[in-house]
Amino acid sequence: MELLAIISVLSLLAYGLKGLTGFGPALLFVPVASVLFNQPLAVAASGVLDATSGAAMTVTDRQIRRGREGFLVGATMAVGTSAGVVALSYIPSIAAAVLLMVAVVIGLASVVIAQRRGPVEESQKIGSRGGAVVGLLAGFIGGITGINGPPLVIYLQRILTPHDLRIVVTRVLLVSAVVRVLTFLVVGDQIANAMLLALVCLPMQLVALLIGTKLSRITSPGMLTTINSTIVAFSVLLAAYNTLWGS
Fold first, then answer.
1. Half-sphere exposure of 85 (CA within 13 A, CB side)
2. I need a labelling partner for 214 at 20 to 30 A (CA). Which of 14, 84, 155, 207 fits?
3. What is the sign of the dihedral through the CA atoms of 234, 240, 241 and 242?
């Protein structure tokens, strides 16, 4: 019961970030859940929660629902996600934990660079070749670690404003999350327990999304990049702990 209470409060913090920025909950949720339970369960539960949060944000946010940008990224990310989930069933747990830490460190580097450059003032079109490559890479990393935001942010933050980034990433991660859950269903690894864990987190998640979405409308682009940097820096410590002592 104590672990479930911790994970429920964690979902409030993690998905408040999702409502605010469009990405980031896995950077908090997966490292902590991996320490409390195990990484395959954490990745599977994160996939379920990302699917429910992405669906809720898409239904309630007109901008997200009407947008078309990022389709190619989402399509290639679906392929990479399936491959990553299958790979998670075969690689050693210590290797998966190391990949988790690497993904979070890359995420930290991306938001630090974004903080130094400052937010993009006007969005550009997403390139087809770059979008396809980053989709495959982010999907594969996300399938193994549950964290697929960093590669997306590294690429998209250079061409999209923070608010447009929130819209595109929300749609892309929804596709990835649905594919991740479906692949776990096929593989049959941890999905029943993941569903139960996600059900415990669902009430807090919905409250957090509501709060985060409202805050996103009054938060400046510069403040969004600062928030990203702070959250990802904290998650590096969690990922390092999981790699050194959790496996």
1. 30
2. 155
3. positive
- 236 is written with which tokens? 């590096």
pLDDT for residue 110 = 66
Which residue ranges of the chain lie beneath pLDDT 50? Answer: none
The CA distances from residue 40 to 3, 34, 36, 90, 192, in Å, are: 17, 8, 12, 11, 12
Query: 47 with 185: CB under 8 angstroms?
Result: no
What's at 173, amino acid-wise?
L
Q: What is the pLDDT of residue 66?
A: 54
- Residues 212-239 as b/e (b if ≥16 CB within 10 A, e otherwise) read bbebbeebeeeebbebbbebbeebbebb
pLDDT at 207: 92
Q: Give CA–CA dist 247/243, Å, rounded.
A: 6
Q: What does the alpha-carbon distance between residue 130 and residue 134 come to, in Å, rounded to a whole number?
A: 6
pLDDT at residue 243, as a whole number:
59
Given this model, what pLDDT does residue 204 score? 92
